[in-house]
Design goal:
Helices cover about 40% and strands about 20% of the residues. It is built from 10 helices and 11 strands. It is α/β, with parallel strands linked by helices. Helix 6 links the parallel strand 6 and strand 7. The radius of gyration is 19 Å and the shape is globular. Strands 1, 2, 3, 4, 6, 7, 8, 9 and 11 form a 9-stranded mixed sheet that branches. Strands 5-10 form a two-stranded parallel sheet. It has 2 domains: about 140 residues, 3-Layer(aba) Sandwich (D-Maltodextrin-Binding Protein, domain 2); about 120 residues, 3-Layer(aba) Sandwich (D-Maltodextrin-Binding Protein, domain 2).
Length: about 280
């Protein structure tokens, strides 16, 4: 743990050092920093942006449109920072390289992807294999999982989502989600849909979990901050920010350093995520 903390403290110093040579690359947009991308990283960024402005007077505009859209925006020059709940894909790295863009990856927090159901659903535990079977259509009724004799309504993220990418890899093992799954564009939309349908199941970032839905234990491991920190929870991931080093403004550097420092990492924890 000590080595991990030291690694990211060093990264923050490195970014600050890079900033000394990038003053000429600052964008002419006043004090504002523009961040686009993952809706999972959105709560962290929003809370940090508010505290950062109070501390520095620098405004940070934050938009949640999905990890894929955020990465596309950093490649196309549409933002200063791209939030992502997954690593960049090889084709995205190639697209950046083709444009002469040097993208830096910055780890900012850890997260868990939590399966959720309606609070009235009696099912409390589920295995990874059962989750895959639900989402590929092999299991279609809650009674097969110890629940009521009702058809399962499957809610999933769309393919531009980093959360979807991790689910596709760790739960689906690259298999397709059933064709009649209801696709949603954000964590918030999935919560709203599941909270309004006793037959539904969905999945969200841990930081979004609230009393309107019920998080399900996976493989007997409870959805707790402790189990996420230790790595016991089966569906865990890293959360990132991506920047274009050649067009990285001084204010963006300041914001990233703020988020990686003690105060920023405390905000990560308060937002319901796992700090570095």
């Amino acid at each position: 743990m000590y080595l991990r903390i030291m690694k990211f403290t060093f990264l923050g110093v490195l970014i600050a050092f890079l900033g000394l040579g990038l003053q000429a690359c600052s964008r002419k947009k006043g004090d504002r920093v523009t961040i686009k991308g993952s809706t999972t990283v959105l709560p962290i960024t929003q809370k940090a942006a508010e505290a950062f402005k109070k501390s520095t007077g620098i405004s940070v505009f934050v938009e949640g449109s999905g990890s894929g859209n955020g990465i596309k925006a950093i490649i196309d020059g549409g933002c200063d920072i791209a939030n992502s709940s997954r690593e960049m894909k090889p084709e995205e790295k190639e697209a950046a390289s083709t444009k002469g863009i040097k993208v830096r990856e910055i780890l900012v927090a850890y997260d868990m992807i939590v399966p959720i159901v309606h609070p009235s659903n009696p099912v409390n535990n589920i295995t990874i294999d059962q989750l895959k079977a639900i989402y590929d259509g092999s299991i279609k009724n809650w009674k097969d999982l110890g629940g009521k004799d009702e058809n399962i309504v499957v809610i999933s993220r769309d393919t531009s989502s980093g959360t979807y990418e991790i689910w596709h890899e760790k739960v689906m093992r690259k298999a397709d989600v059933r064709s009649d799954a209801l696709l949603q564009a954000s964590n918030g939309a999935i919560i709203t849909t599941v909270a309004g349908n006793p037959k539904a199941i969905g999945y969200i970032g841990f930081g979004y979990l609230n009393e309107t839905v019920k998080g399900i234990t996976v493989n007997g491991v409870a959805v707790t901050l402790e189990n996420g920190t230790s790595g016991k929870f089966p569906i865990s991931r890293k959360l990132y920010m991506y920047v274009n080093e050649k067009k990285l403004s001084n204010n963006a550097i300041k914001f990233i350093n703020y988020l990686l420092d003690t105060e920023g990492q405390e905000i990560v924890k308060k937002a319901g995520y796992i700090p570095l």
